[in-house]
Amino acid sequence: MTKIRILVVEDETALRDMLQLVLEQAGFEVLPAENVQAALQAMGGQLPDLILLDWMLPGLSGVEWAKRLRRDATYSDLPIILLTARGEEEDTVAGLDSGADDYITKPFSPRELIARINAVLRRFGKGEKPGLVQIGGILLNPDEHKVEIDHQPLNLSPTEYRLLEFFLIHPDKVYSRNQLLDRVWGRETYIEERTVDVHIRRLRKILADYGRDAMIQTVRGFGYRFTAQTQA
After folding, report:
1. What domains can be seen in the chain, in order of their start residue?
2. Reduced to 3 states, what is the DSSP secondary structure of residue 141?
3. Residue 68: how many CA atoms within 13 Å on its side-chain side?
4. What are the helix (H) ranges across the chain?
5. Contact 223, 179 (CB under 8 A)
6. pLDDT tens across the length of the chain (232 residues)
7. What pTM was estimated for this model as a whole?
């Protein structure tokens, strides 16, 4: 079986070596690079399956390179995960708007890194499905395509399932309507942003029967966040 190839672009040597070790232990093939020029050379004539890209790089930054990749037909469909020390909501939205498919805020655990990579790969039809995901009493079983709350199965439409699955895999992160459309409905889907609001209302109504509707939070001016921390 061919290994998933991940291009790791990180200028800090110690962190780049750590990332390579963690990813190789998880069964991935790793192409390490310290900057954009080295990354282009490492890719050669064979594209990687995913790019793990540091936000702050010498010369051309990771965010700017992500924007260029999205404008280039050769690379426009490559999954990109940004590594960043920027944890503010404005920076998060800016990073995702650059074309990245997800972001990870430093410091992060190897377990979170692998989970995020697998989640993105799965959205692109690659990699393995994640195992059971449980947050706030909500249990997602992707192998059986089922969601339970307090051992009670939820009756979800396909879209509601994908939306809740995305939220469960990406807790405590803010996503705009456009980003949710891209990551839940797909890039080739041409529907209005307000469609997201309709499905959010439906999902909240279902979760309300179990006292979990407050887990989907509206972040004014940005979009939505899913969290187990529902206190004001």
Report:
1. 1-128 (3.40.50.2300), 129-232 (1.10.10.10)
2. strand
3. 8
4. 13-25, 36-43, 62-71, 89-97, 110-123, 158-169, 177-180, 194-208
5. yes
6. 468 899 999 999 999 999 999 999 999 999 999 999 999 998 876 789 999 999 889 899 888 998 898 888 778 788 999 888 765 555 556 556 667 888 888 888 888 899 889 888 887 777 655 568 888 899 998 878 899 998 899 999 988 998 999 898 888 888 888 888 877 876 545 667 788 999 999 999 999 999 999 999 999 888 999 998 654 4
7. 0.56
